[in-house]
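Justification of resources, computational component.

The compute hours requested in this renewal are based largely on the per-chain cost of generating structure records like the one below. Each record pairs the submitted sequence with a full structure-token output. That output is archived, and it is also reused by downstream analysis tasks.
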Amino acid sequence: MSDRSGRFIVLDGPDGGGKTTQIEKLKSALEQQGRSVLVTREPGGTAIGEKVRDILLDPKNTGMSLRAELFLYMASRAQLVDEVIKPALNEGKIVLSDRFLTASVVYQGIAGGLGADEVMKIGEFCIQDAKPDIIFILDIRVDASVARRKEREADRIEQRDLKFHENMRQGFLTVARADPQNYRIIDADQPEERVFEQIIEAIESVF
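The structure output for this chain reads:
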């Protein structure tokens, strides 16, 4: 890890786990403590990244190969790290990100079959030393995830079949359980206030 003065917190996991809600709550709580907080997301978070996001999530792009998908995610991530995350960390800010490298390891590497190790190697080149201090996996059953997402139109990734999403969920759990020092698994089926309490407890134990 670099000598940066900021902190980097990532919320990841299956779709429908409530990442956006928890990030908003966490941002408010940290700012009340007098901390400077920057919120970002993947894919996206920069002008270039948002254009890449549009390509990646557009349901019309059915012909996109998995390797092309992977490198588009990595391109957006590299831009985000260089333009937003590293400068913010160097300024002493707390960066909250909705997804980061673990998502590619799981989505393209494990569920997609490209290989977790191979994806991680590419990812480490893209992020350099911008590694999260803690990564929360908001775990949720596939059926509950689908139910939560019914209110909005599914993007290209969300439209994949249930088997893919189950493999993806198990991938997140496998990666997190293999590295308990950096990951925390939170049951996202709980009431959102309880989820938030567990996130705060974990952050306080680390920071």
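The mean pLDDT is 94. The helical segments are 19-32, 47-57, 66-90, 101-111, 116-127, 142-149, 162-178, 192-206.
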